[in-house]
């Protein structure tokens, strides 16, 4: 499968630079994955497309203020973006700067007594750093929110890049489909009989990076920590037994759910903690997810491949063209899609 099959043109003015207020005022493109029919709505009206007994599965990860400024001993400026913790003092990171090789010592701006040493050189700008002390407790003081590079406007309230579900810190980017929910919307959906379950996937930037391989299958997707708790497994199994739909809030929730399905061997979903390497592209057989709430994704990305696997590449391509024609807002702070079938998938 060619990576170019997942390319499309998006003028810069379509890229949302700031979050909309309130969160659930964003637009909602509702796509029938069976027919390709499209309905236009607002996110606060999503309940009209859901049924009592449906289960919404959210990702409760919290974005770390994971962007650090540092300097080499020679004085050269360095930017560090934490991707994932490997051990208490050791992180996989992306670095910006020159001459950052094995053994290079970096001094963290803002704390003269905190440093890091390059322990390994990975591909491109990725490195393994060992810090002189645990860095997580210092991030609220030293770190900056790692907004995507296509967002150029400053974010006045950093909580707007967190979902209202956010709990355990660990992500380098927000699970953006969850950004549309408000406490009031959650309350109204619950009152309608919609059920909720929570999973965790700590999002790495590789999730959003464009695929550079000509053949999409050759792309190496990096692992991400995920957890499906016992309560979520029980809710999923009960929902499916009762004929309800399992609705993933975001592609990250999809990866957790379908990883659990793969690892459960065809039986009931079991609790799980792992580092998932699941790469979902057209041809993938979904076993758990019946519907998906998601944002509009970057060209040539694994996320666009995932939604194309769920609804069909041509169906998604046509939906994106409709979204552009209707002037929807794209990417992290943009509008949302609900991809579903009115009946159970």
Compact description:
The chain has 345 residues and is of the alpha/beta class. Helices cover 18% and strands 27% of the residues. The chain folds into two domains: 3-63 and 156-340, QueA-like, CATH 3.40.1780; 67-142, Thrombin, subunit H.
What are the main properties of this structure?
Thrombin, subunit H, six-stranded antiparallel beta barrel, 345 residues, 17 strands, 2 domains, 6 helices, nine-stranded mixed sheet, QueA-like, globular, alpha/beta
Task: Give structural notes.
The chain has 345 residues and is of the alpha/beta class. The chain has two domains: 3-63 and 156-340, QueA-like (3-Layer(aba) Sandwich), CATH 3.40.1780; 67-142, Beta Barrel (Thrombin, subunit H), CATH 2.40.10. The chain is 18% helix and 27% strand. It contains six helices and 17 strands. The chain has helices at residues 139-142, 183-191, 230-241, 251-263, 302-311, 313-325, and strands spanning 27-32, 38-42, 55-59, 62-63, 67-72, 77-87, 90-96, 105-108, 115-121, 126-131, 169-171, 195-201, 224-228, 246-249, 272-276, 291-295, 336-340. Strands 2-1-17-16-14-3-12-13-15 form a nine-stranded mixed β-sheet. Strands 5-6-7-10-9-8 form a six-stranded antiparallel beta barrel. The radius of gyration is 20 Å and the shape is globular. The mean pLDDT is 94.
């Amino acid at each position: 499968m060619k990576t170019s099959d997942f390319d499309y043109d998006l003028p810069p003015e379509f890229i949302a630079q700031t979050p909309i207020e309130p969160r659930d005022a964003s637009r909602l493109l509702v796509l029938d994955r069976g027919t390709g029919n499209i309905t236009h709505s607002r996110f606060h009206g999503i309940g009209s497309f859901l049924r009592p007994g449906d289960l919404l599965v959210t990702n409760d990860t919290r974005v770390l203020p994971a962007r650090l400024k540092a300097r080499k001993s020679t004085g050269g400026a360095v930017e560090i973006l934490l991707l994932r913790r490997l051990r208490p003092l050791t992180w996989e990171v992306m670095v910006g700067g020159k001459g950052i090789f094995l053994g290079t010592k970096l001094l963290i701006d803002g704390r003269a007594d905190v440093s890091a040493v390059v322990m390994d050189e990975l591909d491109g700008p990725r490195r393994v750093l060992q810090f002189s002390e645990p860095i997580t407790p210092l991030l609220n003081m030293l770190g900056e929110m790692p907004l995507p590079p296509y967002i150029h406007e400053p974010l006045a309230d950093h909580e707007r890049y967190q979902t209202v579900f956010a709990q355990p810190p660990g992500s380098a980017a927000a699970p953006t489909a969850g950004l549309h929910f408000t406490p009031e919307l959650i309350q109204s959906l619950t009152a309608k009989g919609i059920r909720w379950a929570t999973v965790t996937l700590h999002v790495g930037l590789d999730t959003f990076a464009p695929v550079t391989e000509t053949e999409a299958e050759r792309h190496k997707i990096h692992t991400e920590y995920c957890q499906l708790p016992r309560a979520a497994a029980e809710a999923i199994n009960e929902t499916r037994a009762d004929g309800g739909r399992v609705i993933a809030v975001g592609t990250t929730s999809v990866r957790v759910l379908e990883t659990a399905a793969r690892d459960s061997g065809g039986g009931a979903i079991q609790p799980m903690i792992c580092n998932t390497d699941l790469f979902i592209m057209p041809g993938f057989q979904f076993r758990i997810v019946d519907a998906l709430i998601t944002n509009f994704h970057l060209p040539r990305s694994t996320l666009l491949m995932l939604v194309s696997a769920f609804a069909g590449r041509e169906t998604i391509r046509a939906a994106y063209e409709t979204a552009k024609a209707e002037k929807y807002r794209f990417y992290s702070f943009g509008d949302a899609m609900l991809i579903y079938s009115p009946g159970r998938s």
